[in-house]
């Protein structure tokens, strides 16, 4: 269940590309908030603003104007190093393409964020193994990505994203490269992590069937929020 604490706040966010008559509004005065513990899906056609919003939420980009608060921190006031620390310490990322290192084991892949944190090797392996257990892959910890199915590879990617116990997990089309059965497995896993580990999840998807796993769906259209619907939306 979602708590009342706002962890993501967009206040009149504007994002433009280009200048003068060539300026394009990717986001035009967008305002919304996401509470700690929510599972929110973001939907919209290509160019609607959903990916731009995710980039700003993930501290990968800054708005042209407006205010973005992450856990109460005004992100625009941070420098690049401080934004990198937010990403490293508070955010987990899952992508459509898995982005695993092909020649290393599942366990080594999951360890990566802990290496950046300078976690000691022995402790690192224990924490990484626990993350693999959470996604049900402890039995293939020593397998390389080539020895895993697409669904298993995405679960390794999810384990890597949650190994640092992030406040927010950002999932960008996490089922985009999977068949329908594997997609449902991944969505059930994300739902379980949200409910049992209380991780706030924000997911971009173009599939209504996947969005139904979320507690709330935010629809973008032409740089605006067209609608925001709670579970049972359609």
From TrEMBL:
Q: What UniProt keywords are attached to this protein's entry?
A: ATP-binding, Nucleotide-binding, Transport
Keyword Protease: yes or no? no
Q: What is this protein called?
A: Macrolide ABC transporter ATP-binding protein
Organism of origin is Halarcobacter anaerophilus
Asked if Cytoplasm is a keyword of the record, the answer is no
Query: What Gene Ontology cellular-component terms does the record carry?
Result: membrane protein complex
Instruction: Write out the similarity annotation.
Output: Belongs to the ABC transporter superfamily. Macrolide exporter (TC 3.A.1.122) family.
What are the ABC transporter domain coordinates in residue numbering?
8-234
Provide the GO MF annotations for this entry: ATP binding; ATP hydrolysis activity; transmembrane transporter activity
Q: Name one Pfam family in it.
A: ABC_tran
Please, which domain of life does this record's source organism belong to? Bacteria
Q: Which InterPro entries match?
A: AAA+_ATPase, ABC_transporter-like_ATP-bd, ABC_transporter-like_CS, MacB-like_ATP-bd, P-loop_NTPase
């Amino acid at each position: 269940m979602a708590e009342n604490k706002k962890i993501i706040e967009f206040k009149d966010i504007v994002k433009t590309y280009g200048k003068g008559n060539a300026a394009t509004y990717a986001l035009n005065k967008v305002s919304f908030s996401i509470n700690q513990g929510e599972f929110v899906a973001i939907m919209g056609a290509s160019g609607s603003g959903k990916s731009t919003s995710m980039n700003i939420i993930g501290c990968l980009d800054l708005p042209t104007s407006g205010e973005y608060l992450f856990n109460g921190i005004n992100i625009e006031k941070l420098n690049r190093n401080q934004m990198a620390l937010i990403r490293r310490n508070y955010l987990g990322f899952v992508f459509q393409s898995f982005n695993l290192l092909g020649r290393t084991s599942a366990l080594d892949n999951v360890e990566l964020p802990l290496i950046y944190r300078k976690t000691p090797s022995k402790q690192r392996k224990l924490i990484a193994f626990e993350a693999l257990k959470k996604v049900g892959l402890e039995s293939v910890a020593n397998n390389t990505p080539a020895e895993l199915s697409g669904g298993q590879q995405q679960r390794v990617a999810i384990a890597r994203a949650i190994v640092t116990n992030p406040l927010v997990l950002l999932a960008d089309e996490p089922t985009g490269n999977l068949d329908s059965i594997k997609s449902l497995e991944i969505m059930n896993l994300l739902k379980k992590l949200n409910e049992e580990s209380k991780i706030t999840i924000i997911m971009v998807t173009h599939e209504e069937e996947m969005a139904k796993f979320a507690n709330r769906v935010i629809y973008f259209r032409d740089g605006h929020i067209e609608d925001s619907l709670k579970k049972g939306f359609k």
